[in-house]
């Protein structure tokens, strides 16, 4: 996004928010160099304001004032909602940007659509700016705010002013980072009747406050919790949420780990996606989520996954009702015994993504008679498999061959090949070792592509994009890796 305050400081003097009028046309109105009348300016002010409201930033709306004297004040009016974006800029000009933001808020009559404080490099809610932020949040120009992107600070979370909560009745989207909710009274009734998307990252918040916050989001559809501090557990009760992304640990602060995530009651939840290689809590319990269809990335650091009354980590081979169709997990070895137990726990699974962690002592000798003890997803549903870190060695081949010989409705199996030439001869050898001529599904296709070593399943860009049926399917989006 554009640096509104920074760009304004380059083009306008701090004591003025208006450029000079353009030349007048022959008929007394503004026009082009040939004297043609400005027909757009003859439109009603309400329509002109609607046009300006479609511009993504206040800078763009304000710059339209050079087009016509009739447009000079439109960007300030209620018909052109404020979209204020404060992006990155030199730290030496931070005070100037703060002054310009204050002038914009003083000049615009409101309402506001978007207030965006960008991440590191932008204006942060540091202690010396706390009073200024508080006054901004109380400005009438921000009445009706729909989107709030607030970045607290670069290091420890900064206090979130209670005045920020005055936007609760109108917010549709909120992203709050590096903030401490300590000033928010746990007993305060928090109501966000229009909020559909909520992202909290690097925040400190009590369990009671978080519970009240989520309870007040009566229309919430997507929830993103990343590196939340001070939690012993997080319990989710939401009648509307459809997607949850969560990350509770990073490489630099083990204290960010919390032991348990509990999906207590989420009747509309379709996606539960832990982010990052170390993203998940130690235990995930899904008590009631009857529509859950996408689950993962489940790393080896998630010690237990409980769905209903069945512990998947303990690999209890019991069939139970679950709607999960897309499963993404990490497997050390890869471990065929563990994966087969997982398959039995997810009878409706259609797509399986596996991030392998090769181990030389893994044998993966097939010991399963699927005729005597059938696995439902292999017989009826599993149609796509992606295996990353495939090296084509004995354990890899034995692991993959199980699916080749038993997945009866398989359509495609993709191998992200690592540490190999992956040339035509090598692929031909793999076809022979995997016994593709004896595959259980005659329509199955087997693709081998080079893998760069990155876990393409752990850094999710489409967690909350519900228009994509499978957020892990890289073929649906150009911004993702091909595997």
Automatic annotation (TrEMBL):
Annotated SUPFAM superfamilies: F-box domain, RNI-like
Domain F-box/LRR-repeat protein 15/At3g58940/PEG3-like LRR: 134-354
Domain FBD: 373-415
Recorded superkingdom: Eukaryota
Disordered, as annotated region: 1-39
Residue ranges occupied by any F-box domain in the UniProt entry: 40-77
Descriptive protein name: FBD domain-containing protein
Organism: Triticum turgidum subsp. durum (Durum wheat)
């Amino acid at each position: 996004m554009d640096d509104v305050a920074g760009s304004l400081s380059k083009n306008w003097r701090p004591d003025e928010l208006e450029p000079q009028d353009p030349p007048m046309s022959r008929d007394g109105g503004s026009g082009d160099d040939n004297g043609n009348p400005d027909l757009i300016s003859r439109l009603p002010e309400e329509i002109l304001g609607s046009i300006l409201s479609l511009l993504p930033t206040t800078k763009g709306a304000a710059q339209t004032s050079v087009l016509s004297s009739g447009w000079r004040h439109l960007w300030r009016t209620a018909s052109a909602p404020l979209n204020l974006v404060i992006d990155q800029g030199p730290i030496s000009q931070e005070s100037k940007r703060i002054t310009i933001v204050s002038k914009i808020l003083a000049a615009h009559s409101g309402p506001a659509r978007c207030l965006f404080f960008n991440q590191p490099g932008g204006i942060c809610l540091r202690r010396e700016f706390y009073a200024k932020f508080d006054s901004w949040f109380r400005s009438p120009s921000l009445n009706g705010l729909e989107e709030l992107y607030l970045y607290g600070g670069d290091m420890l979370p900064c206090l979130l002013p209670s005045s920020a909560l005055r936007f609760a009745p109108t917010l549709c989207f909120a992203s709050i980072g590096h903030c401490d909710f300590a000033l928010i009274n746990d007993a305060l009734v928090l109501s966000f009747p229009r909020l559909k998307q909520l992202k909290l990252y690097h925040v400190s918040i009590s369990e009671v406050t978080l519970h009240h916050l989520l309870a007040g989001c009566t229309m919430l559809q997507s929830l993103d919790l990343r590196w939340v501090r001070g939690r012993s557990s997080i319990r989710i009760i939401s009648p509307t949420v459809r997607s949850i992304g969560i990350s509770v640990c990073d490489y630099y602060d083990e204290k960010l780990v919390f032991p348990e995530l509990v999906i207590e009651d989420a009747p509309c939840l379709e996606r539960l996606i832990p982010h990052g290689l170390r993203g998940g809590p130690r235990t995930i319990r899904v008590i009631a989520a009857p529509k859950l269809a996408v689950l993962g990335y489940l790393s080896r650091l998630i010690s237990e996954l409980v769905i209903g009354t069945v512990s998947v980590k303990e690999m209890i081979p019991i069939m139970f009702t679950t709607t999960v169709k897309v499963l993404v997990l990490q497997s050390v070895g890869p471990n065929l015994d563990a994966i087969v137990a997982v398959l039995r726990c997810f009878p409706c699974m259609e797509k399986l993504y596996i991030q392998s962690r090769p181990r030389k002592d893994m044998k993966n000798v097939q010991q399963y008679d699927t005729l005597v003890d059938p696995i439902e997803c292999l017989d009826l549903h599993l149609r796509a498999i992606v295996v990353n870190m495939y090296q084509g060695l004995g354990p890899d081949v034995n692991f993959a061959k199980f699916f080749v010989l038993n997945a009866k409705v398989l359509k495609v199996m993709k191998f992200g090949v690592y540490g190999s030439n992956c040339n035509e001869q090598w692929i031909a050898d793999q076809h022979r070792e995997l016994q593709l001529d004896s595959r259980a599904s005659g329509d199955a296709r087997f693709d081998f592509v080079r893998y760069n070593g990155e876990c393409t399943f752990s850094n999710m860009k489409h967690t909350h994009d519900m228009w994509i049926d499978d957020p892990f399917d890289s073929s649906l989006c150009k911004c993702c890796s091909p595997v």
